[in-house]
Amino acid sequence: xxNRINAALCTATVLGLGAAALxxxxxxxxxxTAFKPLQFSARVVHERVILDFGKAVPPKDLKVHLxxxxxxxxxxxxxxxxxxPENGIEPCPDSCGDPVVYAxxxxxxxxxxxxxxxxxVDVEYDGPQGENVSHKDKTSLNYQVRPSFTNLKxxxxxxxxxxxxVISGDIKLYDPRNGALKPYxxxxxxxxxxxxxxVAPDAKGHFTSKIRISGAETGSLPFDPATKPFDxxxxxxxxxxxxxxxxxxxxxxxxxxxxxxxxxxxxxxTLTGPFGTDGKIGGTVTWKAPDGTWKPVPAGxxxxxxxxxxxxxxxxxxxxxxxxxxxxxxxxDDEPWQVRTDSPWVAEExxxxxxxxxxxxxxxxxxxxxLAYKAVRVSAKLNLVEIPSNAPSWxxxxxxxxADGKTGWSTFDTTTVRxxxxxTTTGSIDRDLRYPGPGFxxxxxxxxxxxxxxxxxxxxxxxxxxxxxxxxxxxxEPVKRGQPITVTGKLTEAxxxxxxxxxxxxxxxxxxxxxxSWTGMGTTKTAADGSFSRKFTASTTGTxxxxxLATDTxxxxxxxxxxxxxxxx
Length: 569
Prior knowledge:
The chain is an all-beta fold. It contains three helices and 43 strands.
């Protein structure tokens, strides 16, 4: 079930409500969600306009407007919407408590228009501050007499040894203006796998046709609450009819009987590879025919590879029953993998794949951040496994930079990581490095003939703008003890435009003559033009300095010049 509605839904809350009811959150958290900028999609299915707002509840005063394509005049406005139960709706038990509004797609009723033609769909609603928000041309509607499939059936379940079934049903021309039905003229297509079969209905629109299922057809349908659990392995026959430029598609699920006996034969019983590299496996799947012979399974039969109880990846067989691939799952230990068939067409058959992990490396967590004082903070973990006993106690690791994150990698700094010859170790890398320039960074261990290398993914550095403090001055100078000193300056971006930084904090520092450390003297906010000013009481001769210590990721730090002020008795 879709995560947006995987909790039990109160039927009274979700079904049959207008847009206003759907849009009212019942908690502060939901209210906050409703006021985020909305990203939504729109589509038309069987004369219904469906709006999906993702994780947000539908907004207030939601409307859909229809215009004849190429015109500006509205021919219809729809204000009533119903939640889409395409993922199944579970009624709430008595313990459900207060109704809760869930973010689900909504749809209009089937549209009843006076004239056929192409229509453009506009969407309008109230924004977070009550402002009107309008989106034009969100989708389109081809309003015509269209094909409609009903009463679809398959005569029997199929097996690899008996793969034929007879499909039947009715196809009519449906008039959306009044619901009238007429027989469908001509032929439509029934597709199974890559084979399309033309089917001709009779004068009343009824049809029957023998279809041979190859054994590997799979498909998906919108969730049907009557089909639980949803069997994604079952084959589907895809039916397609077209009239007046409107294409109608339906998928007829065909049941599969108890699977035939199968056999998985691996190319090699052992997978050997360096730690951290992707495993490459292959093999063949065959099935036992009624005459006792073993035949390759059809193309598209699914083979599952379990590298752990909860980790599984899939491959598909080709026309000769072969499966082969490099898995995006690294070899991390010597635990065996399980390779098995995963299809209703054949009885499950599995083979244990022995895994032999050899010396290798991989990087764990990796972060790279451009700091405000023009440095890059890099953190990573390098895993070294099955290290040969003759390996060095330290390995060199490179910090690399690239403008595009793909090519032109150059090393701008290095470090070392301790190893455990004859064993396994994890080395932590935490360094503040000079800024190499805009672009991407990564960490790489180049490797040796005995210890394969590896690299982290590329991370783009979020660029920061340089800042500058100009016109800095502490005055008057000299000044008598106990009299005021005014410290002024201006904070701007450091590029040619010199855009001011308004409303940010500037910190003041003072170092008395003969002292070795600075003392914080307070802060002020910059004015609209970036200027700042603050008065202090003169106490002793020393040097003044102002600094901007950026608190976000947009700017770099800035420090003013040093201005010495002599304080007289």
